[in-house]
Amino acid sequence: MSFGNKLLIMGGCVVPLMVIGAAVGAFAIKAPSGELWEKVPQIHMILRAGVGTLLGGSLGAGAAKIYISLHDDEIHL
Known about the structure:
With about 80 residues, this protein is mainly α. The protein has helices at about 5-30, 35-40, 40-70.
């Protein structure tokens, strides 16, 4: 499998899961409550979306690595 194909697979797995993770995180992940979050609610949303993006990107990278290792013709030890 060429390097270009590996990059396409990585991008195809990571980017959509990052977007989905950001959307889910913005609405589902609970962030701390307190005076700061009440004063600046945008930070609250950015924090939750950022966490979702990181989690989604990590899942996508892991899925792409597994897919590439299963479908790659080269042997990696």
